[in-house]
Amino acid sequence: MITTLGWFGYDMSNKEWFNLLRQAGFDGVILWWNDEFGDTNFHSNPIMARDAGLFVENIHASFDKVSNLWLDNLDGNAQLDYFLGLIDDCAKYQIPAMVMHLTCGINPPPYNELGLDRVKLLVEKAEKNEVNLAFENLSTTKHLEYVLNRIDSPRAGFCYDSGHHHCWTPKGDFLAQYGSRLMSLHLHDNDGTDDHHLLPLDGNIDWPATMSKIKKTGYTGPIAMEVVNTGYKDLPPEEFLRLLYERAKKLEVLMQ
Question: Could you tell me the domains of the chain?
Answer without folding.
Answer: 2-254 (3.20.20.150)
